[in-house]
Amino acid sequence: MIFEKRTERIFLAIFFLIALCIPLFLEDNSFFVGKVTTILILAVFVMSLDFLVGRVGLVTLGHALFYGLGGYLFVILTPEYEVVNFWIYAFYVMGVSALIALVIGAVVLRTSGIYFIMITLAISQMGYYFFFDSLEFGGGDGLFIFMKPETSIFGLNFLNLDNPTHFYYLALLGVLITLLTIKIVLRSRFGRIIEATRLNPERTEALGYNIFAFRLISYVIGSTLAAYAGLLFALQYGYVNPQFMTWEMSGTALVMSILGGMGTIYGAILGTITYEGLQYFFEHVSEDWKLFMGGAIILMVLLLRKGLAGYLEKLLEK
Amino acid sequence: MSTELFFVQLINGVQYGLLLFLIASGLTLVFGVMGILNLAHGSMYMVGAYLVWYFVAVTGSFTVAAILSAVIALGLGILIERMLIQRLYNRNHLDQVLLTIGMIFVFNSLQSILWGNDPYGVAVPEALSGSVPFTDNSSYPIYRIFAAVICIAIAAALYFLVSKTRLGMLIRAGESNREMVEALGVNIKSLYTIVFAIGVMLAAISGIIAAPMSSIVPGMGESVLITCFVVVVIGGMGSIKGAFVGALLVGIISTFAAVLIPTMSNMIIYIFMILVLLVKPQGLFAK
Amino acid sequence: MSRIKFLASTVLATTLTAGLSSSALAATGDPVRIGLMLPFSGIYAQLGEAGRDGLKLALKEHASELHGSPVEFIELDTEAKPSRAPELASSMLNQHKADFVVGPVHSGVAMGMIKMLRGKDTIMIIPNAGSAAATGPLCSPNVFRTSFSSWQPSYPMGKVALEKGYKKVYAISWNYGMGRESLDAFKESFTAGGGEIIEEVLLPFPSTNFQSHVSVIADKNPDAVFTFFAGGGAVKFVKDYDAMGLRGKIPLLGSGFLTEGTLQAQGEAAEGVITGLHYAEELDVPKNREFREAFNTEYGHYPDIYAVQGYDAGQAIASTLDQLNGDISDKQAAIAIMEKLTIDSPRGKFTFSKAHNPIQNIYLREVKDGVNVVQSIAAEALEDPARGCKL
């Protein structure tokens, strides 16, 4: 069973149940449908980060590079005013992202710890500057995606991406697939070696495993999932901007992941919802919302030793 | 580039580098001794700048304002360490990162509430406001020379503190073996409080020194934070000597890059850092 | 333990209710809903606050023009982050059903907003962002601007430089839309008249490491320097320029933002700096003097251009509502009215061009005793060429 913990099963069951039904309650309000869609897309991004940081042990502050690339690659690969097939181009985008991740990973994985953090940050910042300074790719103002892709599979068309509710379900599907993918990977033999690599790299290496290779593959998987999230984010409103790949974006995702409970994967969903929910709440309450946000974060770090998921598990695991 | 201009740029680079060292020294000291990655370090720099601006407006004297600000920063450091940082010693590094990120939010918000969001400036103190004539057209500001001298003085003081005093000995011992130091009866808790407070004060002092040369705006903490990290990583996390060398290198390289390849100059520092890490994955003077 | 549970559930409950209740709020009476999408935190916060203060003052002064319709403000902090722009714009449009959306300050955010709001049932008024695209290729019937296009303040400065006899100019700015467009505009008129740009430097945005460049300027000794910087960058550049001894030796020209909202921080270093802008605080226009006193009475400090632009957005809204008798339901009628408005602005009266950008005077100012003193009108009724706009 890929969901071993009781808390996990309970949480995910409730989550998906609510998530499936929410659009029915938000029928008329395309803003709210959009808002929860964005939260789901962010959850995919944060889950992929949680996989890398919490399970593989690679703390990266450059994850947003791939998030931004997801959108930019779509803009670059598709002809401007043409309606393309979503699945085919998602495949292209993820494919190119995987290649880029392979190359970058091969370089950065030679470092570790704080140095790995800094080098990943540096690379994402360089990506940011590249797009910010470029005139062909819209520069600091970003670019529009004028035509949303269509989603037919073998001629069967069931999702219209211009419809916010349909897009929502696409995002929810993304959450499900990402969750399952990560969980299956972690339960496999590959996943077990990854776990061992994180807990005791020297021992694992002594046992004959090429931990560099395992880490590299994990890095590619995590980054590709992030690119998928970025693709969805860009398509949602049809807009890409270099700001999507800054270290602040990576940092926010890291905050969401730690808040939720590092390494639990389902915690990433919980953390994203909580962070976004808190921000929405505080923003509407006070202009000095950052003060409350910071205070809430500090309180949660001090009180919740293992994040929100850890707290839930303490309550529910016997 | 004429030799005259080259010489001027070299001075610019060294002076910038020295200031970077001052900012980075606190960060690397705290990490080296306590293992804490203080992302709110940039906020301390900002606090120093805003405090000195405020006190100059109130007292009219830069010296008084500077001393007041430094003392307040020291107190603030003690407060933060006692109330917040202390609780996280046994937690993992990421929790510390999260805490300091929360602190960034809080400090930015406090800055906006207490002092407002307009850009501020601090006038160069009267005694240091002249300049040394250089060419027919230009002269080099005395204040920048003064700032460089102060940075060197503080670097020397730090060196003296760490290598020649009892506190420094405790710091070096605590860096290598915390349990041993504790077992020897030293109050490690107080040591950590002092070290953290010094780190905060160093950041604030660099904000104070930089104030007459920069603009005091919201977000100024985050903009130095990254450069600060780059310096510390290049030098080797925890090494003050490394931070000194790293800072000078970064200062000189970015100054020359700014004039030789202006549009690429922001990337140059990252490229340099990546190159250093590829050759020496733990920085130049890693422990 | 249970206290934490209680806290957590309260937070969750309040979040949900806050979300649901704010949509209920929109249903009472027939208020005019004005959304403010401005930065209220971060480096642009000063501009966001000024714009909002100006807007609210205008609506207060012109309350009678609203014919009894109450005004409801919805304020959202953009943090000048483009990633939040479409979502916040969607909130304004779909959740709050804003009749007007006033914003933003930052051009990247403007792009995100325009993507969402273009052609929709709301009127977007830009009180600052100067990006050419907003009244250029992306112009739209329901998008207006009460500020400027990046081209406007800088274009006349080329002619000014030529008239002052400067032949060789060193140009420097940040490498982003506003910076590039400002330098290009200056270049356009300056080189057309035979001037030479001896060097053009574009710094990474928002770097403020000017010291090395100021040293180069001293070395190259041009006739003058032309620049665009704003906010903190403007403060630092002017101070570094002065500290290097260049003030008074090499004339410093700029797009007016170099000395807007920054004079107090710049102090003596700004004396003698010459800039072009569509406003100046001492502008000898009766409306300006009235406005400045009213603003000071209301807020306790004097306004700058960012407040003026917000104020004029407010005036535009009020005048439109006046002609519609307070009923804002027909947006097409509102747009038709807005297009024909003459705004009695503190900068002097202006009208909107076909691309909905102000047709306005650009004043030549020089800093004297800590004030931008108007020397002359550098360009009268200057209309942005709106290249690429199909309106």
Task: Name some characteristics of this structure.
heterotrimer, A: 318 residues, mainly alpha, two-stranded antiparallel sheet, 13 helices, 2 strands, B: two-stranded antiparallel sheet
Strand-residue proportion of chain B: under 5%
Structural class of chain A: mainly alpha
Number of strands of chain B: 2
Structural class of chain B: mainly alpha
Task: Give an account of the 3D structure.
The complex is a heterotrimer of chains A (318), B (287) and C (391). Chain A is mainly alpha-helical. In chain A, 73% of the residues lie in helices and 1% in strands. Chain A has 13 helices and 2 strands; from the N terminus they run αααααβααααβαααα. Chain A has helices at 6-25, 30-56, 64-77, 86-108, 113-133, 164-187, 189-199, 201-206, 211-237, 247-260, 266-285, 289-303, 307-316; strands at residues 143-144, 239-240. Chain A has a two-stranded antiparallel sheet with strand order 1-2. Chain A is globular. In chain B, α1 (3-34) runs parallel beside α5 (142-164) and α10 (240-260) packs across α11 (265-279). Chain B has a domain at 25-218. In chain B, 74% of the residues lie in helices and 2% in strands. Chain B has a two-stranded antiparallel ribbon with strand order 1-2. Chain C is globular, with a radius of gyration of 22 Å. In chain C, α2 (45-61) runs parallel beside α11 and α5 (151-163) runs parallel beside α6. Chain C has 391 residues and is of the alpha/beta class. At the B-C interface, α1, α4, β2 and α10 of B face α2, β7, α7, α8 and α9 of C.
Summarize the structure.
The complex is a heterotrimer of chains A (318), B (287) and C (391). Chain A is mainly alpha-helical and 318 residues long.
Summarize the helices and strands and which ones pair or pack.
The complex is a heterotrimer of chains A (318), B (287) and C (391).
Chain A: H1 6-25, H2 30-56, H3 64-77, H4 86-108, H5 113-133, E1 143-144, H6 164-187, H7 189-199, H8 201-206, H9 211-237, E2 239-240, H10 247-260, H11 266-285, H12 289-303, H13 307-316
Antiparallel strand pairs in A: 1-2
Chain B: H1 3-34, H2 41-59, H3 62-83, H4 93-115, E1 131-133, E2 139-141, H5 142-164, H6 166-176, H7 178-183, H8 188-210, H9 220-235, H10 240-260, H11 265-279
Antiparallel strand pairs in B: 1-2
Chain C: H1 2-25, E1 32-38, H2 45-61, E2 71-77, H3 85-95, E3 100-102, H4 107-117, E4 123-126, E5 143-145, H5 151-163, E6 168-174, H6 177-192, E7 196-203, H7 211-220, E8 224-228, H8 231-243, E9 252-255, H9 263-266, E10 274-277, H10 286-299, H11 305-323, H12 331-339, E11 342-345, E12 348-352, E13 358-368, E14 371-382
Parallel strand pairs in C: 1-2, 1-3, 3-4, 4-5, 6-7, 6-8, 8-9, 9-10
Antiparallel strand pairs in C: 10-13, 11-12, 12-13, 13-14
Helix pairs in contact in C: 2-11, 3-4, 5-6, 11-12
